[in-house]
Design brief:
Elements: E1 7-8, E2 13-16, H1 32-52, H2 56-61, E3 73-77, H3 84-90, E4 94-100, E5 122-127, H4 130-144, H5 154-162, E6 163-168, H6 171-174, H7 177-186, E7 194-201, H8 207-223, E8 227-236, E9 239-249, H9 250-258, E10 272-277, E11 281-283, E12 308-314, E13 328-330, H10 347-357, E14 371-376, E15 379-381, E16 384-386, H11 393-405, E17 417-420, E18 423-424, H12 435-447, E19 450-454, E20 462-464, H13 469-474, H14 477-491, E21 507-512, E22 527-528, E23 556-559, E24 565-570, E25 573-577, E26 587-593, E27 596-602, H15 605-624, H16 637-650, E28 652-653, H17 656-668, H18 673-684, E29 688-689, H19 691-695, E30 701-710, E31 714-721, E32 733-741, E33 755-764, E34 770-772, E35 781-782, E36 795-802, E37 815-824, E38 836-846, H20 854-869
Parallel strand pairs: 1-30, 12-14, 12-17, 13-14, 17-19, 19-21, 21-23
Antiparallel strand pairs: 2-31, 3-5, 3-6, 4-5, 7-9, 7-10, 8-9, 11-16, 11-18, 15-16, 20-25, 22-24, 24-25, 26-27, 28-29, 30-38, 31-37, 32-36, 32-38, 33-34, 33-37, 35-36
Helix pairs in contact: 1-4, 10-15, 11-12, 15-16, 17-18
């Protein structure tokens, strides 16, 4: 219970979306019918000749690099084609990928004109049959003859106009640069040594076709001396995953990497979409051989009747540990517990400890009104925990979630949050959304589950160029931070989020380098601490954003233990690493040492993610507790997930050093505000989480929370009563408005996230007409994040400020109108019947204490309104 409970917004009025102005920019022109015939006519003529002969399917398949039935056909265009998915379906094509190509895509000279700057090169991958290809040839002929476009097929004319390339999906697509680099890293010198790979088959809706491709894949693998270890087929409404786990001789893998286009090689199997290193989920705990610390103090026991509100996917925790006993249940869905020796069960034990009790020394209180369910998906070993090497990790996670939430007897029917403090080895985000991230996105939207995912850690250390240890140590704190910022900027493309942190519906948590207790000893020689100065530093090892589609990732950062750094020279340069087996700093969590239950200091994004999960669950309990906005109600899973997601981002703030970093980046980037903000978001996201603000209003402010459901092109209008005492007062004030939702996703769309929600600031004139009011009746201006970057994810959060010179002027009964509206972000993928549930959090805060309390005034006004409405 708190002294300043969060208030509940009255139900909104449902209305229509206000549409913006259409984009009237001039668009790039194509090469015209004659120009396109000169470029692609020969390819279409060869295709037509093949269909005029006997056995065209056989003839076309004789060319492994040509266009053939049931071979993925790629179109590359200068611009995305509106409604192209519908137009392909009309002639039988199944569109499997629509993807935005890299910014460095080389546009053919024939298509370049004065408007080329507006280009957005796009790739379409389709799966045509022989009949589909013949229909496409008919359309090409009609286009060449300047015939009338058939109804519904106009996008094909636009495609032909803007076509930059037409080709089959090939080895260059199946083997991404990131996958090649990781395979080379794992490749054995001995050609006979088997290497484990993961093959993703095209996720066509045609199950029979997927089965045929599995058969073709097995035949090719065995012909190359390999073996299929396991296959997977997940067929859900909105998520399809078809994959094979294989062993291949290292020599065959080496041959594939040296010549991916070999006709009988692995990378030329028609049914394959990607050739990848095995997806290995892993967690790397701090290790220690120290004497066990068994002084746990007086720990308050857990409530055995409390519901399970959170699920932990990790290794196996020690359920009988004094810090966990009674708080965690273990369900061995995958029969992995027996494979994890007790003395190695460190990471999951620490995660369960931080979720259930926080820092054992600084906090130790049991999770508020809730318990934890652990489902092991990793096997704990001496060097950490990792997923079983004979399993497909996507399968393991999907089965665990199915048992937790679905079926006649789900394991965690009252849980709303899943802690995923696991990263995929070597899978740093490089633009492609991983299958694991797509799976979590599907579960989040389909079942209303909030996943908290760690941003991942970069264990290799950070290289500061042309720097000696002694010079770095003598440079002073601010200079040291500047050197580290510069080094991180250079290395940021190799220190990105670990999968599945790029998922759009999840909350991705980075680590703030800070402790909740004092250091245990002086700083050892050869170590430096960056603690001190204004603000909060992010951990040097924490994975950096941005996320998919340049969305804000991490969503926020949270306490992850202070990261002292070890200095070690490498030639003329300096390497900074976060040491293992280090007990000067960190968060106190449960572990096992020398076979005994113990507590140990840990650090990293896993730790910050565990504390974030704890914050979400504690906030949910407060919401439904005494004086909470939903007192006495048992909110459903989706609402708890969305409300706490909105409250967490709404409670995040950029610290002073983040604002200073923005100013320095803006100067470095010659005044480019947007890019400077993006640079800060890579490290801080929306800011550092303030757990208190998830549960109660600020001392001089008020926080309100609401929920509603809207559809495409609809809106929900919330009227927030304005406190009468604030009118006419010269006071500094700030406002945060945050919307959280789970968007339907569609992998076949370049704009994978289908639904975009936003709050439109407006007011009314004296006649009641709607007018734009960017200050929301309080004469405030946006700060920190601009209007574009906050629209890219599934959290929309706008922060506004007014330092005080402008006095708000409004009368009795005035309201602050917040119109939350939904639009299709995908260019036609969002159904008008799709209902999007969302949560909104609003915080209004004054800079200084006043004689009046705006929270009490707004609460009274809401009560009056509810009585009048009732």
């Amino acid at each position: 219970m708190t002294d300043r409970p969060i208030l509940r917004l009255p139900n909104p009025e449902l209305t229509v979306r206000l549409k913006g102005s259409p984009d009237r920019r001039r668009r790039p022109r194509g090469a015209g019918r004659q120009g396109q015939d000169a470029r692609f006519g020969e390819a279409f003529r060869r295709l037509e000749e093949a269909f005029q002969g006997e056995a065209p399917d056989v003839l076309l398949r004789q060319d492994p690099s040509g266009i053939a039935p049931e071979r993925a056909l790629v179109f590359e265009t200068l611009l995305p084609i509106q409604n192209f998915q519908k137009a392909t379906a009309r002639i039988g094509f199944e569109l499997l990928i629509e993807d935005r190509l890299d910014d460095n895509y080389e546009i053919p000279d024939e298509l370049v004109d004065e408007y080329v700057a507006a280009a957005a090169p796009t790739l379409y991958a389709t799966m045509p049959s022989a009949a589909d290809l013949q229909r496409m040839l008919q359309l090409w002929r009609a286009y060449q003859n300047d015939e009338e476009k058939p109804y519904g097929l106009a996008p094909w004319w636009q495609l032909f106009d803007l076509l930059a390339d037409i080709r089959p999906w090939g080895p260059q697509d199946r083997l991404t640069p990131q996958a090649q680099a990781e395979l080379l890293k794992q490749l054995a010198d001995d050609d006979a040594v088997p290497m484990r790979l993961e093959l993703e088959i095209w996720p066509t809706a045609n199950r029979a076709q997927r089965n045929r491709w599995q058969t073709d894949t097995r035949a090719r693998v065995e012909a190359l001396g390999g073996e299929v270890v396991r296959t997977s087929s997940i067929n859900l409404n909105g998520f399809i995953y078809e994959a094979a786990l294989i062993d291949m001789p290292s020599g065959a893998v080496r041959a594939m990497l040296e010549n991916p286009f070999a006709p009988d090689g692995l990378a030329t199997i028609d049914g394959l979409q990607f050739v990848l290193p095995q997806t290995v989920g892993q967690s790397l705990p701090d290790l220690s051989d120290d004497e066990p610390d068994t002084d746990f103090g007086d720990l308050t026991p857990f409530d055995p009747n409390a519901p399970v509100r959170a699920v932990l996917l990790d290794g196996t925790p020690i359920a009988g540990h004094p810090a966990l006993d009674g708080g965690v249940d273990i369900e061995d869905v995958h029969d992995l517990v027996r494979l994890s020796q007790v003395q190695h069960r460190r990471h999951a034990t620490s995660m369960a400890s931080l979720i259930l009790r926080g820092d054992l020394v600084a906090d130790g209180a049991p999770l508020n009104g809730a318990r934890l369910l652990a489902i092991p998906v990793l096997v704990d070993g001496a060097d950490g925990a990792s997923s079983p090497d004979d399993q497909l990790f996507v399968d393991l996670v999907h089965i665990a979630l199915t048992r937790a939430f679905l079926g006649d007897d789900p394991l965690a029917p009252e849980a709303f949050i899943v802690n995923f403090s696991i990263g995929v080895r070597g899978s740093h985000f490089a633009g492609r959304i991983s299958s694991l991230a797509r799976l979590l996105d599907w579960w989040a939207e389909n079942q209303g589950i909030l996943f908290t995912v760690s941003a991942g850690n970069a264990p290799d250390g950070l290289v500061v160029p042309n720097m000696r240890s002694i010079d770095f140590e003598d440079a002073g704190l601010e200079a040291q931070k500047a050197h580290i910022d510069a080094a991180l900027r250079v290395a940021r493309h190799t220190r990105t989020l670990l999968a599945p942190g790029e998922a759009v519906n999840v909350v991705t948590v980075g680590a703030a380098s800070r402790d909740l207790t004092d250091p245990t000893m002086p700083l050892p020689a050869g170590m430096i601490s960056l603690d001190g100065g204004e603000g909060v530093l992010t951990a040097v090892s924490s994975g950096l954003g941005l996320g998919a589609f340049r969305s804000i990732k991490p969503d926020y950062v949270h306490t992850g233990g202070e990261h002292d750094l070890r200095m070690s020279p490498i030639g003329a340069h300096l390497r900074l690493t976060v040491p293992n087996q280090y007990q000067r700093s960190g968060l106190y969590a449960a572990t096992v040492q020398r076979g005994a239950a113990s507590q140990y200091r840990v650090r990293g994004t896993s730790c910050s993610n565990a504390l974030a999960t704890r914050a979400h669950v504690n906030a949910a309990t407060e919401l439904m507790g005494d004086d909470g906005p939903f007192e006495g109600q048992n909110l459903g899973r989706r609402d708890l997930a969305l409300i706490t997601k909105a409250l967490a981002v709404n409670a995040a703030r950029w610290p002073e050093n983040a604002i200073a970093y923005y100013e320095s980046e803006r100067a470095r980037l010659n005044g480019n505000h947007s890019n400077a903000r993006e640079e800060v978001c890579r490290h801080f996201g929306h800011g550092v989480l303030n757990e208190v603000f998830m549960r109660e209003a600020p001392d001089y402010g008020v926080t309100l929370i609401g929920t509603a459901t809207i559809r495409k092109d609809r809106a929900a209008l919330f009227d927030v009563p304005l406190p009468p005492s604030l009118a006419g007062e010269r006071l500094g004030r700030s406002m945060w408005v945050t919307i959280a939702w789970f968007s339907p996703v569609l992998a076949t769309r370049a704009r994978y996230r289908l639904a975009l929600l936003e709050a439109v600031p407006h007011g009314t004139d004296l006649l009641g007409n709607l007018i734009e009011d960017q200050g929301w009746n309080l004469d405030m201006r946006a700060r920190e994040l601009d209007a574009n970057i906050i629209k890219r994810g599934t959290v929309w959060s706008r922060r506004l400020i007014q330092d005080g010179p402008i006095v708000p002027n409004y009368g009795q009964g005035a309201v602050l109108p917040i119109r939350v509206q939904c639009r299709d972000n995908s260019g036609g993928g969002l159904s008008p019947d799709e209902e999007i549930r969302f949560a909104i959090a609003v915080t209004l805060e004054l800079e200084v204490e006043t004689q009046f309390d705006i929270r009490s005034e707004i609460e009274d006004l809401i009560r009056v309104r509810l009585r009048e409405a009732g």
